[in-house]
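Format notes (please read before filing issues)

Several people have asked whether sequences and structure tokens are stored in separate files. They are not. Every record keeps both together, in the order shown below: the sequence lines, then the token lines. Line labels are part of the format and must not be stripped during preprocessing.
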Amino acid sequence: MRKLLYITVNSKPENLSSSKTVGRIFVDRFIKKYPDFTVEELDLYKAHIPRLEYQYYQSRNCIINEDAANKLPEKEQKEVHTIVELCNQFISANVYVIASPMWSLSFPAPLKEYIDCIVQSDRTITFPEKGGKPQGLLNDKPRAVIYIQSSGAEIPLIMRPMLNRGLDYVEDIMKSLGISNFEKLLVDKTGTTEVERLAAIEKAKEQIDRIINKLDVKEPISV
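Then the structure lines:
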């Protein structure tokens, strides 16, 4: 079966998080349209995301092999295995829904630590030996990323290139890995009151069906 990986990046419970509230609605509607998908969830505030240490890598973005990992202290072996498992989980999915608030013009730190774990040489990306542009390896099957971002203010279109640095970074990273199908769902102007927050959620919900219908997640027809 095909898989949707739902990644959340907020310590708040779902009912208090605007991004997670919209994310849940998105996932539910997506599964209703594509019931052949399974859903796997990853809460980056509950899961352990290792910090990358030099001894975990044999070269740039290239994790050490199993034999080398087994020579590390037990705690560090577990860290390496966790990094490999996170990368394997990401590779195995077809659709990725990431729900995150905008923090300091970017996103919470756990998301960056997670991205560092999944950008791995010869697994999700390849680096030419003699320079040249890195090539993403995740264009092997139909994949799509939906980035759901909540923010307290409504960001004017003309200011988004300056203020949406976190969103732009995630889009650039995913495309560098070979996933060209990227959609954003903005939950803007959540404000300071519950009335404002609920209004922002309702406005974002209106975009969900349009985005789902736009996604190209159909499996190629075998001939």
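For reference, the curators noted about this record: The radius of gyration is 18 Å. DSSP finds eight helices and nine strands in the chain.
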